[in-house]
Amino acid sequence: MILFDILSDGLFAAIAAIGFGAISDPPLRAFPSIALLAAIGHALRFCLMTYFGIDIATASLCASFAIGMGSLLLGKRIYCPMTVLYIPALLPMIPGMYAYKIVFSLIMFMQSIHTPELQEKYLMELFTNSIITCSVIFMLATGATIPLFLFINRAFSMTRHDNNKK
Length: 166
What we know:
Elements: H1 2-23, H2 31-51, H3 56-78, H4 82-90, H5 96-111, H6 116-150, H7 152-156
Helix pairs in contact: 1-2, 1-4, 2-3, 2-4, 3-4, 3-6, 5-6
């Protein structure tokens, strides 16, 4: 049952990433890599959160780092820039439910203007969900770009032919 949960999580993330990737019109050879990176990253985050009890921000950092490293390796192999691979692979990990809860809390806060107890409740939810959303998005961006800074020469030479090799 655990393996099924992990595989289904990765499968749905791969499908979503293919959809996000199609919007930006990458080369067709990039789609399998985008799907693989999204599946690995999302499944890793799922495992870290579900089975190891790691918070969503830290798990997102680890998963996005794995996506960034994978995009570095796969990008060289398929002759495609890292960003073409890792941006669509990261998008399924955007915390949409927390972002939705931000808007909902804001609306409920405004509707309970005459009830201080409810206002306090919704204001706390607004701040909590805002912090979680911003933290996760920051960690996703940070984790995916760390490989770029670690291997800067390789990252910039991925799509360039090396004329010095014979």
